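step=encode ok
step=design start
structure_in=
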């Protein structure tokens, strides 16, 4: 019998599991996909928001500001690639400047630190490629960027090191609740999954786009997820220095949320759009999406050239109304819903972890802290971000660091093997952990080699190696010449 089962291995479920790993409670994290971070958490802007664009008094605003602080605190022990780059919300006329002052006031009320309205001259000195028509901006120094999937893996790896059981390919299909007045919390839940049966006294639903379906399994039907699609466009790394800060326009119905950012690995990125779709699996991009993103991005930085776009993707925000819905359900005591975690969910995740732990404790879960927690995860090597001298030392120690598998992103055989050792079983899993296959050639050069390494290291035939799990296998026969 588990004390707590967390459903959903995205950033939110991983953060909840990570927080629970500090206490002496038996916890399991269940994920339906073959690997963690294959849901919404794989496809977003990767921004650790300061908290500037949230309604005053909103739960998401409060948890965003707290999450921004917690990410910094966790950075060292979880070996996160968090980089504080600062953001500018850019105004082009007096009306927009007035709106900046209002946004500053609202953000300060939420506790966002260090805000400043900066002048046209400041912008010319500090953001040289910004449109010269910009007249002022709201500067938030605490905005940062992070690799969203590596954030999930760090949270989950640390939770696992501290005793949380992680089960992938384990889809929760239905849940039974038995009332047990002698049990803490008053309930015993039996979760029927594709990976067998689990029993637990508490269940936390972090199911992202499917949080409404999981909630309905408990008879709580008040949550309706309406996916809001965001299309994002990635530019070549050679344009890495096109901006210094994250750049947002003052929000209008056409531009809200669209920005110029860069990934933590150095590619500039523009987007995302925001429009409602019906299909929870629709990750297509559109010509209109590209046009809208370019319109807003080029107004901010006229030098952005569509010819520099090397990749694009869409993500779906799991929205239900405007705010996060995080609550213990009276209808099913012991069941906690964590739903509607749209942006800034990546930022807020560690704070959500704490918030949920508080809810569980108030519903009767005894949470004795562990005397010693081994939170520190082993440091991951990334040759692409390492000075050459340091990389040469590594190659001298282990020649597999000198065997470059992915040339675009400089990823070695050793890194690919380490990613597999850490749990990657698919091409996407290797890509998210190492960046192999994420460069300009989109894996044309390295895919076959990585498939072969995956096959050798996991003992599976090459025909079973997939892009992102069952149904996305690439090879039809046992030959792969790479
Ligand atoms: C385009 C876009 C840009 C964004 N940009 C930012 C940003 O820059 N900064 C920021 O802070 N936020 C951003 N967000 C929001 C952020 O990505 C999300 O809030 C966050 O990733 C949600 O995480 P999650 O764990 O709730 O969902 P998910 O990552 O989807 O995790 C839920 C998991 O539950 C699993 N699951 C579902 N049903 C079951 C079941 N029955 N059994 C077992 N497992 C199940 C799914 O497979 C999934 O892995 C953005 C979102 C989008 C779409």
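sequence_out=
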């Amino acid at each position: 019998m588990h004390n707590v089962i967390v459903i959903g291995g995205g950033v939110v479920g991983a953060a909840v599991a990570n927080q629970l790993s500090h206490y002496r409670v038996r916890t399991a994290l269940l994920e339906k996909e073959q690997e963690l971070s294959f849901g919404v958490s794989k496809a977003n802007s990767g921004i650790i928001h300061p908290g500037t664009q949230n309604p005053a008094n909103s739960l998401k605003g409060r948890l965003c500001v707290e999450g921004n602080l917690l990410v910094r605190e966790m950075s060292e022990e979880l070996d996160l690639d968090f980089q504080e780059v600062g953001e500018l919300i850019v105004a082009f006329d007096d009306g927009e400047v007035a709106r900046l002052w209002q946004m500053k006031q609202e953000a300060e009320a939420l506790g966002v630190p260090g805000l400043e309205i900066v002048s046209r001259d400041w912008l010319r000195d500090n953001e040289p490629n910004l449109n010269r028509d910009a007249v002022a901006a709201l500067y938030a120094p605490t905005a940062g960027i992070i690799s969203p999937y590596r954030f999930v893996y760090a949270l989950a790896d640390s939770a696992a090191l501290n005793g949380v059981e992680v089960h992938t390919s384990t889809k929760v299909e239905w849940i039974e609740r038995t009332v047990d007045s002698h049990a803490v919390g008053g309930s015993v839940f039996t979760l029927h999954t594709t990976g067998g049966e689990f029993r637990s006294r508490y269940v936390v639903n972090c199911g992202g786009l499917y949080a409404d379906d999981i909630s309905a399994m408990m008879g709580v039907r008040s949550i309706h997820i309406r996916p809001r699609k965001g299309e994002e466009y990635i530019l070549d790394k050679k344009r890495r220095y096109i901006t210094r800060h994250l750049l947002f326009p003052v929000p209008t119905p056409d531009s809200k949320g669209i920005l110029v950012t860069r990934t933590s690995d150095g590619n500039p990125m523009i987007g995302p759009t925001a429009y409602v779709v019906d299909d929870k699996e629709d990750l297509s991009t559109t010509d209109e999406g590209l046009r809208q993103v370019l319109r807003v991005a080029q107004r901010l930085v006229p030098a952005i050239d569509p010819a520099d776009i090397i990749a694009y993707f869409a993500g779906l925000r799991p929205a239900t109304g405007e705010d996060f819905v995080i609550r213990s359900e009276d209808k099913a005591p012991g069941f906690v819903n964590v739903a509607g975690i749209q942006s800034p969910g990546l930022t807020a995740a560690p704070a959500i972890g704490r918030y949920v732990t508080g809810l569980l404790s108030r519903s009767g879960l005894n949470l004795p802290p562990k005397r010693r927690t081994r939170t520190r995860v082993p440091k991951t090597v990334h040759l692409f971000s390492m000075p050459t001298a340091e990389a040469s030392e590594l190659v001298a120690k282990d020649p597999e660091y000198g065997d470059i598998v992915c040339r675009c992103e400089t990823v070695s055989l050793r890194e690919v093997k380490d990613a597999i050792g850490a749990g990657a079983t698919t091409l996407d899993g290797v890509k998210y952990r190492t960046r192999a296959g994420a460069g300009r050639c989109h894996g044309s050069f390295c895919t076959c080699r990585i498939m072969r390494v995956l096959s050798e290291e996991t003992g599976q035939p090459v025909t079973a190696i997939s892009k992102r799990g069952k149904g996305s296998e690439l090879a039809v026969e046992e030959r792969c010449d790479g």
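step=design ok
step=annotate ok -> The CA atoms of residues 68 and 347 lie 6 Å apart.
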